[in-house]
Specification:
This protein is mostly helical and about 70 residues long. The protein has 3 helices and 3 strands. It has a 3-stranded antiparallel beta sheet, covered by helices on one side. The longest helix is centred in the middle third of the chain and has 14 residues.
Length: about 70
């Protein structure tokens, strides 16, 4: 799953959302990922089974993060 940079989410919101939604992501890791999203335009935030990816993708999008479409595979 890829989260893209946007102009409406703060670093804190992105970091807190990633930590809240994705298993194994701490707030500190969320901040590192948010920094990567800001600096490179996007970041892969999670990989795994499609069913879980769809669930996490929906949760992140509902929280306002800008999500890339899920890849088919």
């Amino acid at each position: 799953m890829i989260v893209r940079n946007d102009n409406h989410n703060t670093f804190d919101h992105v970091a807190q959302t990633l930590a809240r939604v994705l298993p194994g992501v701490s707030l500190e890791q969320g901040h590192r990922i948010a920094d990567q999203i800001h600096n490179t335009g996007q970041a892969i935030v999670w990989t795994g089974p499609r069913e879980l990816a769809e669930h996490y993708w929906e949760q992140l999008e509902l929280a306002g993060l800008t999500m890339a479409p899920l890849e088919r595979g």
